[in-house]
Design brief:
Layout (H helix, E strand, L loop, with lengths): L2 H10 L1 E5 L7 H8 L5 E8 L9 E9 L2 H11 L3 E2 L2 E2 L1 E4 H16 L2 H4 L12 H25 L3
Antiparallel strand pairs: 1-3, 1-6, 2-3, 4-5
Helix pairs in contact: 4-6
Protein name: Probable RNA-binding protein 18
GO molecular function, one term: RNA binding
InterPro entries: Nucleotide-bd_a/b_plait_sf, RBD_domain_sf, RBM18_RRM, RRM_dom
């Protein structure tokens, strides 16, 4: 069995849940999403420093046992009101691709080419980060070069 297919399967069964009201707790989130399948893990993100330390960040990740369960939960829960706010529910791989596309429009597209969608932690791979930094530096050099050409000597 190809290990990449396992990673893809795992990332496709992981949901990003955003626009969470600060009153929603971890247990409330699990109760809202458990009717749609077996929840393998849940990552509720908190501020770790600064004046908001210990407060929820307003988003979380839920890992289901299968991608079918994740897709069902996405269909049923996206846009549903929770504490007066519409939930944003996406497959975590979709969220990652959207961020990579947004970053690549600034950095030349290397983030997507480097395979960020295969990451299971929801973060860019090291090589993708390096490629994005190189593209950013290249773009800055090009801007600096064109600004120098515009100034009369």
């Amino acid at each position: 069995m190809d290990p990449r297919s396992f990673i893809d399967e795992k990332s496709e069964s992981r949901l990003y849940i955003g626009n969470l009201d600060l009153r929603i707790t971890e247990s409330a989130l699990i109760k809202m999403f458990s009717p749609y399948g077996k929840i393998v893990s849940e990552d509720f993100l908190w501020h770790t420093r600064g004046p908001k330390r210990g407060e929820p960040r307003g988003f979380a990740f839920i890992q289901y046992s299968t991608k079918e369960e994740a897709k069902l939960a996405k269909e049923k829960m996206h846009g549903r009101l929770a504490c007066g706010r519409p939930l944003v529910v996406r497959l975590a791989s979709e969220k990652l691709l959207e961020e990579a596309a947004h970053n690549s429009s600034k950095a030349g597209g290397e983030a997507i080419k480097s395979g960020t969608a295969g990451s299971t932690s929801g973060q860019m791979s090291r090589s993708a980060k390096i490629a994005a930094i190189k593209n950013k530096l290249k773009a800055l050099d090009e801007e600096r070069g064109s600004a120098k050409k515009q100034k009369p000597s």
